[in-house]
Structure formats: structure tokens, C-alpha cells
Automatic annotation (TrEMBL):
Origin species: Psilocybe cyanescens
Cellular compartments per GO CC: P-body
Protein name: RNB domain-containing protein
Segments forming domain RNB: 455-807
Example GO molecular function: RNA binding
Region annotation Disordered: where it falls in the sequence: 28-70
GO biological process: mRNA catabolic process
Basic and acidic residues bias: start-end ranges: 36-47
Length: 942
């Protein structure tokens, strides 16, 4: 492809940020989509971006702000005036945006930095004047091209250019009510800002060619599959010697085309986009075309589908579902034309960032309104309900199974999934015969154990593999070794599965694991990092299952501890174990007299029965030693003034196994009956981190610290987790919080948030920085190494440790530069996994609550035992004003339900209510979806 043709595509859309998505869809992209890029036509480019960091001391606190800073009342009144460009286009987008700022919470912005701010499809340019801490979050104060100073979150920033003006000039501008001196400085700053923006506009002015050529270069060869690209990659396609301005123009081009490119989470750091498959673009285009025909009075498949759907919904509404879980055929038949609209509705439920237009919104709204004729705005919840009524998905269907990262082919039949992709690779790997000493290909396993000559045989040492009964990927166990000459000291050995002895870094499964990052545990589906067939293959013994004395290869992390928890010595070895004792957390707790982990059941139900543990006296003696050593580790952290937040969380236990003949989603013509039995429970984080769970956790922390120490000693790069300490308003307040702690270092989060200014998020680094929450100091570092079957970063650590153990002088598996690239991928995948896990748990908790509330309304449930009628709540942050509705809303935590809810129509006379304030609320409604899954409550009348 000619560089001129690609380059001329850039600014065609740089000036079209507000164009209609429907108008964009009407562009004929099909011709471009059928062509293929020539092999080798795309130049490689670095994906990584770094952001300037600054000490926390340079972040101004709210209390230390200049005198001219507006008061809270003034900020409320000024909100509409100061943020016209940041107005949300709808309540849904505002709710999404509230959740997104955590992605960039660790990125700081120096005064004088040029920033592009995005809210939905609106982009605003400005200069950072200051950062403050308010309501437990960082707020960025930015001077815009219109001369307004606006207050926004860090995650609203999508592009930066450092040092557009000096820090001293930015400081003179001020960020509050301006003084004459501030105005003089702002005029000077605005000249430079507008000059840059004018340069951007001139850069874009002469470019006329449509931007479809870039899409052809970056799209997947499979028209059904999502793929990814980066700003750096596309910029290097467009420019032979790109300047910084060229990167910015490429960013704008990609960001302003949400039909083709979706910004990835953590975009400011990774500058990555997901590239929409051609099939999805064509579906959106075809649905849009049908809607336009209908509006023009031209017959189209749209009218036929709406009529069919209305009949099916009517039949659904007239029936009363009872009986066991089953699926039956219905008279209405969906044909290929109907499936176009059904697939469109299913795909409309996938996640979408609020900074870009969602190309599904308008079409989905048209379809749902035509079928259901709702009286409220169309959102995920209504679309979800419609698909259930149409018999497309079961009422219990997990929508997270549809998201592109877990279903990149968008295959609703489960015939082409990331599991089948891994299975195909595994089949090819079994057939491939790599030979020792030869260069191994992407399908070759290591032909023999590379660490066989240095493995330490732990003999008949009892190795306790302690996990939940349902756990499948058993990748760690613990043994204890007494020292006869030092009875007060013990060796603790953490034995970890060793997949690196089979899978080399360039294996196709390793590359797939890097893309995925981690295993995913959904409600009814586990998506493992490595194929389950491989993990449980007895030939390779990757999972630490009990195998009647058969040898298991492990990486063993050994720590010599004294009675005060001090690490006297440590080492990492390749090991062999044979005496594995698999036992559950609950069984260990019963055996040690801890009692079962505390839970309560607000909607009824009890915990599952736990059988008596089959442990002998020697087992119990070992476990008691481990528990005592865990207790002293906790005590050492408490001495370091570490505090953990004790908060209630919810969980849903499935008591019903869905019959294998139930197919959901079903693009045929069927309807579902029944609903699985579930038990809703609530627990506290302090209880989750005590007993046997706390004991295992402490041993894993010791192993991870040991891994970091060994890697440091050999100057081998590794990915480390780190976290700064919280920011307290004063030493006296900090001491108040420390005095609240329990013996295991926990304090009630409601009491903490009243006193805490900021709790920093955890980050990744190659440097051995401190991890305050774990009590790990600077210079030691914390490397995660104990879950290589579940986390890619852990097996990366193992590959580096293998290199050390072999005493190899050959090239490291990952150099420092390569590790930086891995770190960027790990950062993205860990955030994505955390978001999915949180969203998935919330989805089923709210599904249970919604069904309970619906049963109350229908008279099925006894209203005398209704926990939703009156609930204790406390405020999680200050009230927020929605500029598009002029209404106030506030998030509250519900301790009895272990969940967060949203209070809408919050009274204006309570706008200054402090964080942590107690309220009484009652149930209002639930929205189920992925973009917005929320419980809504209202204040009880006093």
C-alpha cells in the first residue's frame, strides 16, 4: 500500500468526531473488507508507552488548595457552566464513566501537560494546571481551549503531550476562581494551547481520502474474529518518520471511528484498540439499512422480524413458567433474515467504553422499542429481558460469555471458541516430535525435563494442597520441615506446579496464554489459561493432584523461619514431590478448631455440609506449625502499621447443574422452563483472610517474596506488584485507624473512608518497589510465582527462574526490554480479568435479588421476611450531579447484602452529606447487563 494513500486517510475523520454512527455505517466498507493486505506490507512498531511519574508529594491535597478555590456549593452551581463540553449524552454513559476512572488511577499528570479529554464521543483539549485529592480520588484541573477550567478524573485523559507550557506558568494560572494575575497567566497559556490545536487542524485540513485502507491493513484475516492494533503500529503504517503530532493524529483517527476500532481498557498507557470483525460491521450496516427502508416505507425483513418477535413475546407474557429446567420448541421459526437481528441484539450487550459512540445503540433502541414498546429508555436491561422472552437466551444465561475477549469469534454456538483454539494447538503439539538439542517450533513441547539433573527429591514429605472443593487447577502445595538442632525454627516449602518444564516461551500455547493473561472463572464456565486436557494429563503431571505416590515436578520455594516470622534463609529449587494430600479449606478449619468461615444468608439457605477431615496426628501437627507461622507473619505486618479494609461481599452458590441438553443461546426456535436453585450468601473480607485461607495466603506471600529476592540476586528482570501507602489527613487520623484494627490487621471500611484521603491502587513495575499492603519494603519486591497454571505472569517468572537454576550463560528468556512489553500485556489482562470477575459476581447477585423482589411483587415470597424492605446503608462518596438530568445520585454500600447500590433522586438538601454516613434505604429496581449492572434503592421516608 502506498504511504501517500494511507497518510491521506488520516485527517478525513480527524474533523468528524461528532458524525452520526448511522451515517458512518452507510459507507460502503464491504469492498475494502474483501481485500487482503499483502504479506509483509505492515511495518512493526513498538506497542509500549510510558507516562511521566512524579512523587506523591507534588499532588496537592484538597485542604491545601489556594484560597481562591471554589467552595463545594460554588462547584455544584458552576458544574453546568464549566462542563458544557463534557455533558453526557445519557444516564447510561454517566453510570459507565463512574466505573472507568479506576483504569488510569495510577497515572499522574504534571502541570503544563497537554491533554485530550474524552467523555463519550466528545473530545476536549486542554492544559493540566493541577491535581487534587477529593472524595478519595484524584481530580485533574484543566484549562480548555474555551478558557474554562474544568475538573475531571484521570481516566478521562486519552492522550498527552508533556511540557506544552512550563510548570511555573501552569501554577500561575491557578485552578479556582481567577484573580487578575491568574487571568494574565491563562491568556499566555491559551495562546500556546490554541496554537497547538490550530496546528492540528491545519495538519488535518487537506486530507480527503476515506479511511478504509487502514482497516484493511489491521483487520483479522478471519472475517468473524476480533483482533487488536495500536496507535504506534498504525502510525508507522502511515508515516515513514512519524513525529509526535502524527501519533496524535492517528490516535484521533482511530478513536473517532468506533464502528471499526474500540479503545482498550487502560488506553492511556497501552494506546491499544480492538478491531471489530468485518462480519459485525456488515451486520450493523445491514440492520441499519433495514431500519432506513422501514422508515421510508419500503418493505424489508425488519417488518417480518418485528411481527414474529411480538407474537413470541405475547406468548411468553401469557404463560406462567413452572417445573424443572427444560427447553422446548415453539411454533415460530427464526430464519436467516431473523437471525441477523437476533445476532445484532446479542452483540449489542457486549462491553463498550463510554468515551466512544456505541454503534449498536441506535439500532438496538429501534428494535426494542418496536417489539416491547417500553415506557422507559432502552438499555442493556430491556435488551436482556427481550432476548429471554424471545427464547434466545435462558433466564440464567451468563452474558459475560459473549464478550469479545472471551469469545473473539462472536460464536454463539460454541463451535469456535478460545477453548477450541487451544485444543487444536494441543492436538498439534501431541503430534509434533521435538528433539533435544534442536530448535523447537511453536507446536513442540520440551522433549525432556530441562531441570532433571538439578531437581531436589523431597522424598515422602507431606505436601498439603489446600483449596476449595471445586478447584480444578491445583498449582500449589505446602510442606513443613522441622530442624532437629533448631526446634524453634522451621523450613516451609511452597511447591508450585512447573508447566515451564514442558511449555517453552515460544510455544503456541504460551503465546495464546500471553494474549489471555489469566484463567477466567465464570458462574457456569471456566476458561483455563492452559487446556484442561493438558493440565490433567497424567503423563505430564502439571496439576498437583493426588496420584498414589507418583512423582510430580514442581518449583519449590523454601523459607527458613524463626518463631517471630523472620526469614533466616531462603532458596528456590526444582523439586520432586510424591506425597500429596488434597484437602479443602473447610476441612482444615474444622480439624484445627477454627470453625467454618462465617457467612450469612439474607434470603434463606445454609452452607453446604462439610465432611469430617481425614487427617492423622502428624498432619495436624504440621498444619498447626503452618498456622502459627502464618499468625506471626500477620503480626509483623500489624507492627508495620499496615491496615486492611474489612468489607462485606456477596456470593451466589449454584445448587443446580444445568442439564447438558440445554442450549443457550439458541438461535433456533425454543423456550426455556424453570430456573436453577441458588443460595445467596454474604461474608466479610477479614473472615476470608483468616483460618486456613489466611494460612495458605501467608505461605504464598512468603514464596513470592523469595522469588523476588532470588531474581534480584541474579539480576534477572521480573514483573513485580507494588503499592504505595494510603494518604491520611494527619498522623493523628492515621493512628485512629491503626487503633481500630483487629488482630489480623483489619478495620471496618466504613470507619476508614471517613478518615482516609486516598488509597492508592496496586501497580506493576520491574523495580523492587514497596508493596505497602503486604508489608514488603522497597528493595525486596514482590513477584507473583505461585499460580503458573492460572496466571501468565507467574509462568514468565518460572521461565526466568529456570534460566538461573540451569546456570545458563545463554540468552535470558526475557530481557528487561522484553519484560517491559510483557508487563504492559499483564497490566491489561489483569485489569480485564478483575473487571470481569467483579462484574460476573455482581451480575448473579443482582439476578438473585431481582428474582426475589419479583416473587415478592407476585405474592410468591413471604413479605414478613423481606430483607429488601428496609436496609442499612452508608455513603461511599459525595453525591454527584448528573448534568443531563440535573439530578443527584450517590453510591451506598449495603452491609446486609454485601453489595453496592445507587440512590437516585438524592435530595439536594443532603448534597454535603459526608462519606460514611448511615442511611436507611429500600429496594427500587435492578438493571441486569454488562455495561450497567446496578441495584437501585431509594431513601426510606423519615
Amino acid at each position: 500500500m502506498h504511504q501517500h494513500c494511507l497518510r491521506s486517510s488520516l485527517s478525513y475523520c480527524a474533523d468528524t468526531a461528532r458524525r452520526s454512527v448511522l451515517g458512518g455505517v452507510r459507507r460502503n466498507i464491504s469492498k475494502a473488507a474483501v481485500s487482503r493486505p499483502k504479506e509483509g506490507s505492515s511495518k512493526k512498531a513498538s506497542d509500549g508507552r510510558t507516562n511521566p511519574q512524579r512523587p506523591r508529594a507534588q499532588v496537592e491535597r484538597k485542604k491545601a488548595a489556594p484560597v481562591q478555590q471554589p467552595t463545594k456549593d460554588a462547584l455544584y452551581e458552576a458544574k453546568k457552566l464549566l462542563e458544557p463540553a463534557l455533558d453526557e449524552t445519557g444516564d447510561l454513559a454517566q453510570q459507565i464513566a463512574v466505573e472507568e476512572d479506576e483504569d488510569a488511577a495510577e497515572t499522574t499528570f504534571l502541570p503544563g501537560t497537554f491533554v485530550e479529554i474524552r467523555k463519550n464521543e466528545v473530545a476536549v483539549q486542554g492544559i493540566v494546571l493541577a491535581e487534587t485529592i477529593q472524595d478519595h480520588r484524584y481530580h485533574v484541573w484543566t484549562l480548555t481551549t474555551k478558557g474554562l477550567v474544568i475538573d475531571h478524573f484521570r481516566a478521562d485523559v486519552y492522550f498527552t503531550i508533556p511540557n506544552l507550557i512550563s510548570a511555573s506558568l501552569a501554577e500561575r494560572c491557578g485552578y479556582g476562581v481567577p484573580t487578575p494575575e491568574n487571568n494574565i497567566a491563562r491568556v499566555e497559556a491559551l495562546k500556546k494551547l490554541r496554537a497547538l490545536v490550530s496546528k492540528v487542524d491545519r495538519h488535518a485540513a487537506g486530507m480527503q481520502q476515506r479511511p478504509t485502507n487502514v482497516y484493511v491493513e489491521v483487520m483479522a484475516s478471519d472475517p468473524k474474529k476480533w483482533t487488536t492494533t495500536t496507535v504506534a503500529y498504525v502510525t508507522n503504517l502511515l508515516y515513514e518518520r512519524p513525529a509526535f503530532m502524527d501519533y496524535y493524529m492517528t490516535h484521533k483517527m482511530l478513536m473517532d471511528q468506533p464502528l471499526y476500532y474500540i479503545a482498550n481498557p487502560g488506553y492511556l498507557k497501552n494506546q491499544g484498540f480492538s478491531v471489530r470483525p468485518r462480519r459485525e460491521i456488515e451486520e450493523i450496516e445491514e440492520v441499519t439499512k433495514n431500519i432506513h427502508r422501514h422508515r421510508s416505507g419500503v418493505p424489508s425483513p425488519y417488518q417480518k422480524f418485528i411481527a414474529k418477535a411480538q407474537r413470541v413475546v405475547k406468548q411468553y407474557n401469557e404463560r406462567r413458567d413452572t417445573g424443572a429446567i427444560s427447553q422446548e420448541r415453539i411454533a415460530v421459526k427464526w430464519d436467516d433474515e431473523d437471525r441477523l437481528f437476533i445476532n445484532f441484539l446479542l452483540r449489542s450487550l457486549q462491553p463498550h467504553q463510554s468515551n466512544q459512540l456505541d454503534p449498536y445503540t441506535l439500532g438496538r433502541t429501534e428494535l426494542v422499542r418496536a417489539i416491547l414498546k417500553p415506557t422507559k429508555p432502552v438499555n442493556d436491561n430491556l435488551t436482556h429481558e427481550l432476548l429471554i422472552r424471545l427464547g434466545i437466551i435462558a433466564p440464567w444465561q451468563d452474558l459475560h460469555e459473549f464478550i469479545p475477549s472471551l469469545n473473539p469469534w462472536g460464536d454463539f454456538s460454541n463451535k469456535n471458541t478460545i477453548e477450541t483454539e487451544a485444543a487444536d494447538i494441543l492436538k498439534a503439539s501431541y503430534a509434533s516430535k521435538g528433539r533435544a538439542g534442536s530448535v523447537l517450533g511453536p507446536m513442540d513441547f520440551l522433549p525432556s525435563d530441562p531441570l532433571e539433573s538439578v531437581r531436589h527429591d523431597f522424598g515422602n514429605a507431606r505436601v498439603f494442597v489446600i483449596d476449595d472443593l471445586s478447584a480444578k487447577e491445583l498449582d500449589d502445595g505446602v510442606s513443613v520441615e522441622r530442624i532437629p538442632s533448631e526446634p524453634e525454627n522451621h523450613w516451609v516449602h511452597v511447591h508450585v506446579a512447573d508447566p515451564a518444564s514442558l511449555i517453552h516461551p515460544n510455544h503456541a500455547l504460551a503465546r495464546l496464554a500471553r494474549e489471555r493473561g489469566t484463567s477466567y472463572y465464570l458462574a457456569q464456565k471456566t476458561i483455563p489459561l492452559f487446556p484442561a486436557e493438558l493440565v490433567h494429563n497424567p503423563k505430564y503431571s502439571l496439576s498437583l493432584q493426588s496420584k498414589n505416590g507418583e512423582l510430580s515436578r514442581v518449583m519449590s520455594f523454601s523459607m527458613k523461619l524463626d518463631g517471630y516470622g523472620n526469614i533466616l534463609d531462603y532458596k528456590v529449587r526444582a523439586g520432586l514431590i510424591r506425597n500429596i494430600r488434597k484437602i479443602s479449606y473447610d476441612e482444615v478449619d474444622l480439624a484445627l478448631g477454627n470453625g467454618l468461615m462465617k457467612k450469612w444468608f439474607p434470603f434463606g439457605g445454609t452452607d453446604k455440609f462439610v465432611s469430617e477431615p481425614s487427617l492423622n496426628d502428624r498432619d495436624l501437627a504440621d498444619l498447626r506449625i503452618l498456622q502459627n507461622l502464618a499468625h506471626v507473619q500477620v503480626a509483623k505486618r500489624v507492627e508495620k502499621n499496615v491496615v486492611n479494609f474489612d468489607q462485606e461481599f456477596s456470593g451466589v452458590e449454584w445448587n443446580t447443574i444445568i442439564p447438558p441438553d440445554i442450549i443457550s443461546p439458541s438461535l433456533g426456535s425454543s423456550i426455556y422452563h424453570g430456573f436453577p436453585d441458588m443460595t445467596y450468601h454474604v461474608y466479610k473480607s477479614a473472615d476470608m483472610d483468616s483460618g486456613s485461607r489466611g494460612m495458605v495466603s501467608e505461605m504464598m506471600k512468603l514464596a513470592n517474596r523469595t522469588a523476588s529476592r532470588v531474581l534480584l540476586e541474579h539480576n534477572v528482570p521480573a514483573i513485580r506488584r507494588c503499592m504505595d501507602p494510603p494518604i491520611f489527613s494527619s498522623p493523628e487520623v492515621e493512628q485512629e485507624i491503626m487503633d481500630m484494627r483487629s488482630t489480623n490487621g483489619y478495620a471496618p471500611i466504613q470507619d476508614i473512608v471517613k478518615r482516609l484521603e486516598l488509597n492508592p491502587v496496586g501497580t506493576f513495575s520491574l523495580d523492587p518497589k514497596q508493596h505497602w499492603a503486604l508489608g514488603v519494603g522497597k528493595g525486596e519486591g514482590y513477584v507473583r510465582a505461585t499460580s503458573p497454571l492460572r496466571r501468565f505472569e507467574d509462568i514468565v517468572c518460572h521461565w526466568q527462574l529456570h534460566h538461573i537454576l540451569l546456570g545458563s550463560k545463554s540468552r535470558l528468556p526475557f530481557s528487561a526490554a522484553e519484560m517491559e512489553s510483557v508487563l504492559a500485556d499483564v497490566d491489561i489482562s489483569s485489569k480485564a480479568q478483575a473487571k470481569v470477575n467483579k462484574s460476573n459476581g455482581l451480575f448473579y447477585s443482582l439476578m438473585h435479588i431481582k428474582r426475589f423482589a419479583d416473587d415478592i411483587e407476585r405474592g410468591v415470597q413471604n413479605t414478613d421476611t423481606n430483607p429488601l424492605a428496609s436496609m442499612r446503608a452508608w455513603t461511599k462518596h459525595l453525591p454527584r450531579l448528573y448534568s443531563n438530568t440535573s439530578e443527584m445520585s450517590i453510591a451506598v454500600h449495603l452491609p446486609e447484602l454485601g453489595i453496592t447500590a445507587q440512590v437516585e433522586d438524592f435530595p439536594f438538601n443532603m448534597k454535603n452529606v459526608p462519606v460514611g454516613t448511615e442511611l436507611r434505604v429500600k429496594y427500587k429496581s435492578v438493571d441486569l447487563g454488562i455495561k450497567r449492572t446496578k441495584l437501585f434503592v431509594t431513601l426510606e421516608e423519615s
